[in-house]
Design goal:
The protein is mainly alpha-helical. The protein has a domain of about 40 residues. It is built from 3 helices and no strands. The longest helix has 14 residues.
């Protein structure tokens, strides 16, 4: 069984990025931490899903 380890990630987000992140959160009924955790997931399927959702925003997120 593969062990998971926690990693701390620090992001610096400007107001425009936060607006786009909040739009994604609203569309998916998720919190900011949930969306960010999914974007940086080690699960390829989850990352692919979130990448597709971000692309649908048209502008990307901009981390």
């Amino acid at each position: 069984m593969k062990m998971k380890r926690k990693v701390r990630i620090t992001l610096s987000l400007d107001s425009e990025v936060l607006k786009r992140l909040d739009k994604l959160c609203e569309d998916k009924n998720l919190s900011r931490p949930q969306v960010i955790e999914m974007i940086f997931s080690t699960d390829g399927v989850t990352v692919d899903y979130m990448t597709d959702q971000i692309k649908r925003l048209g502008l990307g997120i901009g981390f």
